[in-house]
Amino acid sequence: MADDMRLFREAAEELRNWGRWGDDDELGTLNFITAEKVTEAARLVTQGKVISLGGDFSAGGPQGAFKFRQNPVHVMTVDGGDASTLVEYGPQWLRNAVAADMSAFFADNPFRFNDDLIVMPLQAATQWDALSHVYYEDKLYNGFPADSVTSFGAFHLGIEKVDGKGITSCGVLLDVVAHRGADMFCAPGQPITPAELDEIVAAQNVEIRSGDIVVVHTGWWTRFLATGDGGEAGSGLHWTCARWLHDHEAAAVAADNLMVEDPDPANGVEGTFLPMHMLCLRDMGLMLGEYWDLGPLAADCAADGIYEFQLVAPPLKVVGAVGAPVSPIAIK
Ligand code: UVW
Question: What spacing in Å lies between the alpha carbon of 259 and ligand 1's midpoint?
Answer without folding.
Answer: 6
